[in-house]
Specification:
This protein is mainly beta. It has a single domain, classed as Porin (Beta Barrel). It contains one helix and nine strands, in the order αβββββββββ. The chain has an eight-stranded antiparallel barrel with strand order 1-2-3-4-5-7-8-9. Strand 2 and strand 3 form a beta hairpin. It is elongated. About 8% of the residues have low confidence.
Length: 212
């Protein structure tokens, strides 16, 4: 992990050695929304399928220099994974999915570097606060939900990860973004039946936003 962080830092420095700058010297605020593709990674989760959900929230961009900005964000993030998929031979000829839904309020603190005007890369720590947890046997409808009470949960309320991303901001303020977040800590509580289970959040995000 240390080698990955050092490599990322060297790459950012090298890429931004060429001329590049932010489109504004003032603090900007914005909103964004997009799609999540998430699962758990680790030795015990090699065969799980991903869950598709959404993210939505707000952000700010605080210029540090011509090339660098600090970008804090707060957003809702639907995460989790597909526990299993069951092929059912019935009159509807449909599949039944069982999703494990883990939803967070995520707070990334990102260093943003402009490569050329409008195009930037970003990296930084992300802190997640769990707000919802449930099993859903019918993820495509309002039925099948089984909410897990906080007192009965084996998943920690707090999670940490490392975010890597890129975005392109148009002159009018509209921007497109893509990001990957790598879980750094095991999500499962210690002193439970899952304490030796290796599971970390693994999320791809694609979205659109607007800076005001």
């Amino acid at each position: 992990m240390k080698k990955l962080i050092v490599f990322t830092g060297v790459l950012l420095f090298t890429l931004t050695s060429v001329y590049a700058q932010s489109d504004s010297k003032a603090v900007q605020f914005g909103a964004k929304a997009g799609v999540n593709i998430s699962k758990l990674s680790g030795d015990d989760f090699n065969d799980v399928d991903s869950r598709t959900s959404f993210n939505a929230g707000v952000l700010a961009e605080i210029p540090i220099s011509e090339r660098f900005s600090f970008q804090p964000e707060v957003f809702y993030s639907g995460q989790g994974f597909d526990v299993l998929e069951i092929d059912q031979d019935n009159i509807f000829d449909t599949d039944q999915n069982l999703e494990y839904q883990l939803d967070y309020i995520q707070v990334p603190l990102l260093l943003k570097a402009y490569l050329v005007k409008g195009l930037s890369v970003e990296v930084g720590p992300q802190f997640g606060f769990k707000v919802h947890e449930e099993f859903d046997s019918e993820p495509n409808s309002d039925a099948g939900d089984f909410e897990i009470d906080t007192d009965d949960s084996y998943v920690k309320d707090f999670d940490t990860s490392l975010a890597f991303g890129t975005s392109y901001k148009f002159d009018g303020g509209l921007f497109l973004s893509a990001r990957y977040t790598l879980g750094l800590t095991n999500i499962f509580e210690d002193d439970t039946v899952f304490e030796n289970v290796d599971g970390k959040n693994d999320v791809w995000q694609f979205g659109v936003g607007y800076m005001f």
